[in-house]
Amino acid sequence: MNRDKEYGTPNPKAPPELSQFAFIIGKWRCDARVKGEDGAWQPYQATWVGRYILDGHVIADEYRMTNQAGELIVHGMNFRSYSVERKTWVMRWLNATGSFWLELGPEKLGGVRVAPKTITFNFIDTFAPDALTRVTFSNITENHFTWSGERSLDQGKTWAESMVIEAHRTQ
Q: Which domains are seen in the chain, by residue range?
């Protein structure tokens, strides 16, 4: 019951597709690594907290990443809802430190693709407008998931891994 109070519950009238991202509900400790311009991987620590909001019709998940000195590097929140009318996910990232929104998985970039063991979507990053970014959630279990980010500089012909997050449930 305390878990429901802290993280909410899905609304019985919410689209069943909302359950596709339900794995993210709860609190996560994350080991992240980001590939630098020189090709070397840099380690970071992060937390990820997912909740049902708006009477259980939307999932909001907050991501906070720090460097080894504890300095805040990334902080923002994803909002995930499913449009029954359009039969598509509607997702946005709010970058708290930069005060801007990113559209995640827009239909013009292929939408959100849900397979039995992965969820994948593309977006265009404000910091790299010439690049296409692809995100894949994989290795999804009750207590773990992997988030992989890849970049393409040739409209999706080739991809290079740019960031990996290993999330481990703490609650």
A: 2-169 (2.40.128.20)
